[in-house]
Specification:
The protein is an alpha/beta fold and about 325 residues long. Helices cover about 40% and strands about 20% of the residues. The chain is built from nine helices and 13 strands. It has helices at about 1-10, 25-35, 45-50, 65-75, 90-105, 120-135, 185-205, 290-305, 315-330, and strands at about 20-25, 40-45, 55-60, 80-85, 110, 140-150, 210-215, 220-230, 230-235, 245-255, 255-260, 270-275, 280-285. The strands form three sheets. An eight-stranded mixed beta sheet has the order 7-8-9-6-10-11-12-13, covered by helices on one side. Strands 3-4-5 form a three-stranded parallel beta sheet. The radius of gyration is 20 Å and the shape is globular. The two termini are about 40 Å apart.
Length: about 325
């Protein structure tokens, strides 16, 4: 669903690129998706696709433990890559992918699509101005939340078949060597669900925080506090599946605050944000704009310009390092 609805449909709609091939281990699904989106070539494996000289860039959307090996094959073959997150399970794995992209001077982007949200872009502009002109004073703290809920899927632009997901993919280890096996399902959930809000906090507050406090449950939910050079950002993380989607970030200044409210991930709506100045709030309402579409367009543009992506592989290594640090604290008691 995600591969088709959030990625394939958006690249197929972009006149600046051509979708020339699709690869899937499920032949019926590959054929059905190719027919739906008008894709001329269908391959049974990613390696067959990478042997096609017409392919200059790939999007990797697969089971999380198979993401790293496929991305490494694609980068090693000289293809630009947009990969779903998490990029890997360990810092060492992630760095190996970044190095493969660096050696061939490739665009390597990670699917933190919330950075591409038009409302987030506007909020960043406001935050930059406020930090520069000091009209609300200095930033004193921040707090974020991800409670999940309804993902906001309003359309069904994908096909499915009854085929079982096949085995046979190369899988990378799902955690650092020191991590007990019992912890790894929760760690996987943490990386898959909650790395988004961590990545977004870094985008708005600073790229390289440290972990100040951590209280993570076995499921991956809990509370962590990141230290952005003296600014504490507390993140409340809850495994939610019902009700409205609730995710956002509030940045408190001495005389006001900026609050960013994120839309459900599949909703074609941009984030809203509120600027509170001495108790007087101004809400800037989001318009119809989808972060996934903007992410796809940006990947094509970045390749054409050889530009560094908003969520580059190199930057995204930090999210894996922070996740490891959080879970090492849990492992040590």
């Amino acid at each position: 669903m995600v591969g088709q609805m959030c990625h394939l449909a958006n690249f197929a709609a972009n006149p600046a690129c051509r979708v020339v091939a699709i690869a899937d281990l499920r032949p019926d699904l590959a054929a059905a998706a190719a027919q739906r989106f008008g894709i001329p070539k269908v391959y049974g494996t990613h390696r067959e696709l990478l042997a096609d000289s017409a392919v200059s860039a790939v999007v990797v959307v697969t089971k999380r433990r198979a993401t790293g090996p496929i991305v490494l094959d694609a980068l090693s073959s000289g293809r630009h890559v947009l990969s779903e997150k998490p990029m890997a399970y360990t810092t060492t794995q992630a760095l190996s992918l970044v190095e493969a992209a660096r050696q061939q001077n490739l665009v390597y982007s990670i699917g933190y699509m919330k950075r591409h949200d038009a409302g987030v872009a506007r909020a960043l502009q406001v935050l930059t101005r406020l930090r520069n002109d000091q009209s609300l004073g200095r930033i004193v703290r921040a707090r974020g939340w991800c409670f999940g809920g309804d993902t906001g899927r309003s359309h069904d632009n994908f096909v499915m078949t009854g085929e079982a997901r096949p085995d046979g993919l190369e899988l990378w280890q799902d955690g650092p060597d020191w991590m007990p096996r019992a912890m790894r399902p929760g760690y996987d959930n943490f990386l898959n669900v909650f790395s988004h809000i961590i990545n977004l906090a870094r985008y708005l507050l600073g790229s390289s925080p440290t972990v100040a406090e951590s209280a993570i449950e076995a499921t991956g939910a809990g509370r962590i506090t990141l230290d952005f050079e003296g600014i504490a950002c507390t993140l409340d993380l809850v495994n939610g599946a019902e009700g409205a989607w609730r995710e956002g970030l509030t940045i408190d200044f001495e005389r006001g605050a900026v609050t960013l409210e994120l839309p459900p991930p599949f909703a074609e709506q941009e984030a809203e944000f509120i600027v509170d100045h001495d108790g007087q709030g101004t809400r800037l309402t989001g318009e119809k704009s989808w972060a996934f579409r903007r992410q796809a367009d940006a990947f094509v543009s970045d390749i054409a310009a050889q530009a560094i992506p908003l969520a580059s592989g190199e930057d995204s290594v930090t999210d894996i390092a922070l996740a490891e640090a959080v879970w090492k604290r849990r492992a040590s008691g």
